[in-house]
Amino acid sequence: MSTVAANAPGAVGGGLADVAASEASLRRFLHGLPGVDAVGLDARAAALGTRSIKTSAKAYAIDLAISMIDLTTLEGADTPGKVRSLCTKARHPDPSDPGCPPVAAVCVYPDMAATAKAALEGSGIHVASVATAFPSGRAALPVKLADTAQAVAAGADEIDMVIDRGAFLSGRYLQVFEEIVAVKQACRRTDGPDAHLKVIFETGELQTYDNVRRASWLAMLAGADFIKTSTGKVAVNATPPVTLLMLEAVRDFAAATGTQVGVKPAGGIRTTKDAMKYLVMVNETLGDGWLSPDWFRFGASSLLNDLLMQRQKLTTGRYSGPDYVTVD
After folding, report:
1. Average pLDDT, the chain
2. In the annotation, is 264 catalytic?
3. Catalytic pick from 89, 184, 198, 264?
4. Which of 70, 160, 164, 225 does the annotation list as catalytic?
5. 68 near 283, Cβ under 8 Å?
6. Is 274 a catalytic residue?
7. Is 228 a catalytic residue?
8. Model pTM?
């Protein structure tokens, strides 16, 4: 788990601008990254998972975690009414407590982005939309770009794209790089700020930690604003070791380029205890500068209800139970 920045090819002198000049140069760079010490990574993630947050800081940590959630509905049965209901919960996660912070974003399919945008108007909550043939990524590039453009035109503030895992695992790194660049360009708009781009790796399908590190650098070199573990639609989603590896990649990329990139673990994070472990991991690896919804998100809608129950416990001294929080 050594720092890449000092030894990264191209990091000295002219920077990293020429890394993706060709398939050969990109492959040379990615395969020149230090190999991941899997045993050390697992041990480090496990050790960080044993850290505890003092009771005096727990209330702050719970509110911070709530503010970092991308509240999500990505089902074939989604309706405008369901999306509006989710947006209401995003604005006021605990209707009985106006001091409860809103979430960071509501994430929907592109055809629901306009509905979410209207429901969240004036709230400061972002609209995120999955795109690029989510979750499989199996579509031609023009289709993926049209998917992205539709979401941006509908008002999406953030685009969550999936990489072509088949291309990546086949070693066609430049194809993946150029696709991310093209989607990033499709995030531009003339009538306001460009949509931020989150790049999803589907780490459960990448097979090795080395591939996760390579995918992280590839996405960041291509212009990702966030790197994201998973779609939440496969058997293995976010895990502490994989997230730690991505946090370290972000740290090393910032040291090499001066560019800050966000991280979003998604899928399988369901309890307050889980969320606290991830916040400790962010603080220990990246510091306070990343402890913000601008730079760290949870893609875990079921997490919100547990955070709300724990928050009510701190306030009232008793658990209210799941019947006292709204159902997504």
Report:
1. 91
2. yes
3. 264
4. 160
5. no
6. no
7. yes
8. 0.91
